[in-house]
Write a structure and sequence with these properties.
By secondary structure, this protein is mainly alpha-helical. Helices cover 67% and strands 0% of the residues.
């Protein structure tokens, strides 16, 4: 009887050693689904700031250099996270840190992780609120011909009321699903909405009269330019930030080979690089040193093309929320629930207690 018990424990241990990278029985992610969720996690509020970052960096060449150098470290971080998830057999960011670095560091990571997600959620609500306010004012001027300051106040015209409706009617229903794989459909919509803004900025550059297009230098030199280059690194890195969701995406994929994860990471970041670079280059070439931190604020309020861009950008921000809330939900439940091995459908051996009968 003892020999049989030992063999059973040995088999469970060998099965548990393989990575149980998903604790859900939901649908798995294919390559395109993983790429779109990665894109949607990265294409967020940073898109508004890239033309300003290009100006602060001292020109196009300097900014693109910072992008490429930062991208090497960002892609390396994604690969390391995927590898860590693979060897640890964990499916959440904080669980991987706890397994690799120890319980104390894991607890600290979980606190920082939840705080980070909370601050991102608040920041995105502020951005959506700002877009609603500017959109309502611009639509009022476009329809009535009167300035925004003369718009009458009603409770339904208050952007705070509209923001509550958005949270209840859109963000909450989209955040109900517990599987990240379902978010691929919403991520396609959000990615296309963000791409529209980039397309609109490129079109405006080529259709604006040449007298209105500012002459922007390709690059600058000197000590001050180096300081400016380093000052925009946080802005550029924030634009490509999708590492919080990377382990959840990796653990939900059908093909969890590390080489495939490298492919997903590289392709996603290259697409982000193209979208961010086009936005930064053409926004900077259009306005030069007069570009504002929010590129949409640099255009006139009655520009229909940019009004649509503002509306779709708000949609793009809203589609990030289901991913953020899903990560926060997993973070809150990970410390209270044992990890379940999908390969052997039982709890890990460390939590297995067997009572052997007395001889």
């Amino acid at each position: 009887m003892e020999e049989l018990a030992r063999e059973s424990i040995s088999l469970l241990a060998s099965a548990s050693a393989k990575p149980p990278l998903d604790v859900t029985a939901g649908p798995r992610l294919g390559s395109m689904g993983a790429i779109f969720i990665m894109l949607k996690s990265a294409l967020g509020a940073g898109l508004l700031n890239f033309p300003w970052a290009f100006e602060r960096a001292g020109g196009i060449r300097s900014a693109v250099t910072v992008e490429l150098v930062s991208l090497v470290f960002l892609i390396s971080g994604l690969i390391i996270l995927g590898y860590s998830s693979s060897i640890s057999g964990q499916c959440t960011y904080q669980a991987v840190v706890k397994e690799v670095c120890g319980p104390a560091i894991g607890q600290l990571c979980e606190i920082c992780f939840v705080f980070n997600l909370f601050m991102i959620s608040v920041a995105f609500l502020v951005i959506v609120d700002d877009q609603l306010e500017k959109l309502c004012g611009s639509l009022y001027e476009l329809v009535t011909g009167l300035p925004e300051s003369e718009m009458p106040y009603h409770f339904y015209t208050d952007q705070r009321f509209t923001l509550v409706l958005l949270c209840v009617l859109l963000i909450l229903p989209l955040s109900i699903p517990k599987e990240i794989s379902i978010q691929k459909y919403i991520s396609v919509l959000g990615t296309l909405a963000a791409t529209y803004m980039t397309t609109a900025i490129v079109i405006k550059y080529h259709t604006m009269p040449s007298v209105l297009v500012h002459i922007a230098p390709l690059y600058s030199s000197g000590i001050s330019s180096w300081a400016s280059m380093f000052s925009v690194i946080p802005t550029i890195c924030f634009g490509f930030q999708c590492h919080e969701a990377s382990i959840a995406i990796y653990s939900s994929m059908e093909n969890q080979r590390l080489s495939h994860w490298v492919f997903i990471s590289v392709v996603s970041m290259i697409f982000c690089l193209v979208i961010y670079s086009l936005t930064g280059v053409y926004g900077y070439l259009t306005f030069g040193k007069d570009v504002k931190a929010d590129i949409l604020m640099s255009y006139s309020g009655d520009d229909v093309l940019m009004l649509i861009a503002r509306l779709l950008f708000g949609v793009s921000i809203i589609t990030i929320y289901p991913i953020i809330l899903l990560l926060g939900r997993r973070s809150g439940s990970a410390s209270n629930q044992p990890q379940i091995c999908i390969l052997c459908a039982t709890t890990p051996v460390q939590e297995l207690h067997i009572q052997l009968p007395d001889r």
